[in-house]
Amino acid sequence: MHKQLTVILTISFILLTPFLFAQNTKDRGEREFHAGLRQYVKKEYTKAFDFFKQASDLGNATADLYIGTMYFNGFGVEKNVQKAFDWYLKSADQLNTQAQFQIGLMYYDGVYVGQSFAKSAQWIEQAAKLGNPDAQYFYGSMLENGQGIDKNYSKAAEYYQFAKAAGSIDAQVALGRLYYQGWGIEQDYHKAYELLSDAATKNNPEAFLLLSKMYETGNGVEKSSAKAFEQIQKAASQDYPKAQFELAMHYIKINDDREASTWLLKSGVNGYPDAEYYIGLSLQKGYLFKKDTPKAIEWYTKAAEHGQTEAQYSLGLIFSDNKEIPINIEIAKKWLEKAANKNYQPAIERLKAIK
Asked: pLDDT tens digit string along 291-308?
């Protein structure tokens, strides 16, 4: 009897040994990762990297993610986006959703890899389906705008709902926008106001802007130009470039050139493409600012590099037909083609004229 028991226990131990070893390896990896995280929080990046590397060697996917982030930002190591991508990929292959999301963002922005909204959508969708709230919100936005995937408002609403349930204020605002527009869900101004006003209490600048639109139109709320203006001011005061541009447009409407130019420049300096374009236009025409074509080109170029179609077209016009600067058909074609590829008809027509 005792001999049989000994044999059974021996067999059980042999069977359990791989599991116990794997569990011990996993536990060690967790310990090394958390030791690294403590150093990372203290910005002791060199020490953090060493711990993360040890954790990675023990199969810890989150450590791989952090090593990728350190290479991406140059924390404790020389910045290297190629190595960052490789470490993100290693982590993503182990189903780390944040790593999947980061790869998606790299494809979205064209960092190291060639820009591809389609590949971006594929990676971000994986992370979203596995429950990553940031990915759920971003994938919802891609669905809403048809970036890399067919536009689908109802699916966008679903993913915004998932992200909102996980606490994403940006997703809550996006959902409020869909309710306001009636995109993918039944139009409901009351629900839109409820979602947006709650987000506004958390100082979300986009919520302020959408509330401004509601007050301006009187949809779902009592129409009030004063309240509409107040909401834009609240958003702009948070250094939100889009709101700063909207505030500049407000001042242009009431012929307050001083305030208009001030807020336009703030928005442009903060990299808002429409503001950059409008500054270029104002400099070219001598409106709001003193006429200055070379400076106009600088601002147009900033906007064009950010994908602003009208700025791309304007550069095409300037370099193909302008008495103040030398003609450069090669540069003109470059920018006109970018605008034409987005089916901007004036750019298409201009290209035909100069070919």
From this structure: 999 999 999 999 999 999
- DSSP character string of 172-239: HHHHHHHHHHTSSS---HHHHHHHHHHHHHTT-HHHHHHHHHHHHHTSSS---HHHHHHHHHHHHTTT
On whether the CB atoms of residues 204 and 170 are closer than 8 A, the answer is yes
> At which residue do the structure tokens 């609240």 appear?
234
User: Can you tell me the distance from the alpha carbon of 19 to that of 40, in angstroms, rounded to the nearest whole number?
Assistant: 31
What are the boundaries of each domain within the chain? 26-84, 271-355
List, for residues 60-94, the tens digit of each pLDDT value. 999 999 999 999 999 999 999 999 999 999 999 99
- Give this prediction's pTM: 0.83
Collapse the DSSP code of 141 into the 3-class scheme (helix H, G, I; strand E, B; otherwise coil) and give the result. helix
Q: What is the mean pLDDT of the chain?
A: 93
How many angstroms separate the CA atoms of 151 and 262, rounded? 37
Contact, 279 vs 264, CB < 8 A? yes
Phi, psi of 240 (to 5 degrees): -90, 110
Superfamily of domain 271-355: Tetratricopeptide repeat domain (1.25.40.10)
Q: List CB contacts of 155: < 8 A, sequence separation 6 or more.
A: 140, 143, 184
Half-sphere exposure of 48 (CA within 13 A, CB side): 23
pLDDT class of 321 with cuts at 50, 70, 90: confident
Give the tokens for residue 198. Answer: 């709650």
